[in-house]
Amino acid sequence: MKALVYQGPGQKDWIEKERPVIAKPTDVIVRMTKTTICGTDLHILKGDVPAVTPGRTLGHEGVGVVAEVGSAVRNFKEGDAVLISCVTSCGSCPNCKRQLYAHCSDGGWILGHKIDGTQAEYVRIPHADNSLYPIPAGADEEALVMLSDIMPTGLEIGVQAGHVKPGDTIAIIGAGPVGMSVLLTSQFYSPGRIVMIDMDPARLELAVQFGATDTIQVGAEDPVARIMELTENLGVDVAIEAVGVPATFDICQKIVSAGGNIANVGVHGKPVELHIEELWIKNINIAMGLVCTNTTPMLLKTLQSGKVDPGKLVTHRFKLDEIMDAYEVFGNAAREKAMKVILAKIVQARRLPAQAESGLRSCTHYEKPPPKGGFLLSAECITPPAICIPLNAKCLPLSALWSMSSGICIALFASCILRSGKCRKGNGICITLPAPRPLEAA
Length: 442
Ligand SMILES: NC(=O)c1ccc[n+]([C@@H]2O[C@H](COP(=O)([O-])OP(=O)(O)OC[C@H]3O[C@@H](n4cnc5c(N)ncnc54)[C@H](O)[C@@H]3O)[C@@H](O)[C@H]2O)c1
Ligand SMILES: [Zn+2]
Ligand SMILES: [Zn+2]
Known about the structure:
This protein is α/β, with parallel strands linked by helices. The chain contains 15 helices and 21 strands. The structure holds nicotinamide-adenine-dinucleotide and zinc ion (2 copies). Nicotinamide-adenine-dinucleotide (NAD) is lined by residues 39-40, 149, 153, 157, 173-179, 197-200, 203, 218, 242-245, 247-248, 265-267, 290-291, 333.
């Protein structure tokens, strides 16, 4: 198989490598269908993460299909479509027991770090029952890739650790994929004002499209003075650092209001100066941490219900074997106006498997209109698990489904749901339908 391998500082290669094999009964081998590149991979390539040794396959994000299962795996079987968490967890060590999965004694962030990662055709996932999530049928796979790392990171370490509340004024420093994930997930809590701070005008413009109410361009404006002006000298309720340099942590210390929170998400390579002499008297909380991914199940639900669409963070798409070009683009994100890149292993589109075709049945109604962008289940489609799809649907925006009043049940097999060029934005699905048959009247 092919894999993107770290060959020492500044060096990487897309090379032929042994396909991983089951090493422990709790392992699963996943055939990757989509992966991405993280800012952390760029840090590794600079030589900033010495635990990564030459020969290591990079990558800790992605989705795929189970190719092989260890004898002790209970939740997954061959052919299952799965989301890979960037954090591996055994589920039974003392830290896993208190949901501190990042500090699992036999896991944590190991993918593309201490063991071979996801930028390959196949990856071995230890403790698969706890480290993989089944992909809901019809889910947007590109959007799901954002749930491996950046979305839980933004939510857990930025929004939840910063205690964002309804009506709050919050500032996010750093409009990269992680800062954007903070922006998207903070809106679950309805902050009154979201100020995005970055030096890149293109990213700030995108932030406005994603819900930022104000932007501050570092370099052109003084972020501290501007925040004080916006907040009538009160400062912000929550200041979220999503860069990882002393200068941006310092901005947080200067803009946080009395009783406020600083949530540090950025990974720092250098010490920062903590102004405890100014902060103590202001009743400030400071939080920081490594993502635990315990919000992944909740994020999966919000994605399915259309409450959040992280697929819009994807700006560039490549085939998996074009990964060297993808690194070039992602490594020059400002020049290329890149946010997240998707690398997809293109698999030949297949007709519905025979078992799926035989699973087609007519159903007469939808139970209720689905939430925007979601699916719905007709009561008649429950066994086998199925979704209701309008007749003659070829490629349909999910949001249009609810406006139909009748359809057919399609048994859910990940392999029979294809995405076509038309469905690229993640708001539609493509289903290969056999000739429609007449429906009974509703
Ligand atoms: N805590 C965790 O568990 C965790 C998980 C994943 C990533 N991270 C960290 O989150 C941080 C952000 O990740 P990312 O992938 O979005 O990074 P990124 O490099 O893509 O984005 C950082 C953004 O910050 C902006 N920026 C840089 N210097 C700035 C300054 N002085 N003032 C204002 N803006 C500035 C850049 O223009 C860029 O848009 C990184 O440090 C990453 O390592 C932390
Ligand atoms: Zn990452
Ligand atoms: Zn554990």
